[in-house]
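Lab notebook: predicted structure, single chain.

Context: the supervisor wants predicted structures on file for every construct in the current expression panel, including those that have not yet been purified. This is the next one on the list. No modifications to the sequence; it matches the entry in the shared construct table.
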Amino acid sequence: MQHPVIIGVGGLSSSVGKTTLMCHLLQVFPGWEAVKTTRGHYRSCGKDAEACCVSHLLGAEPLIRSGRAATYAPGKDTGRYWDAGASNVHWLIATENQIELGIHQTLKRVRSEGVFIEGNSFSQFVPTDYFVMVRRSGLESVKRSARVLMPSVSSLFIFDDNEDCGRSVAGLENDCPVFTQPRFDLLVSHLRNAISQRCSN
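Prediction complete. Output recorded below exactly as produced.
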């Protein structure tokens, strides 16, 4: 089986709308699967190990949960993927040192034509066919993982109508197109063209 089309959805910082964009994309790409990547460590929530939201799930090997029974929870990111129409949902929970192994193991479970993967870190280890970086106006902090990734980003998506904020953060050198929420249809067209080019090569 040919490997699926891999579309990454990352964020310049936290709480920028990655999951919301993933859900919008799943609605217009019926039959595609979705992957949530959670990179955990014992202070990932700024709390102690017992209080961390995923520390109790971390082990010697990356943890991958697949299928509705294992990943559906109303209101949670993975549950929202199902509600948006994903044909299957996978949740990868791994430490920083386990992301490479974990994402390769997760992709072996994908059976659809394409898959959307939410997160930044995985793209160091898996080539994406398209990567959209999400940001919001007024949020000027940038994750280190996002800054490293910016040169290879395919497009920027902004959850408002202010295109000028797309590259207003110092160090975001990239001439990729910028799409705003009112121009979501143009992002979809740009993405479909990229997929067509990939499939024709």
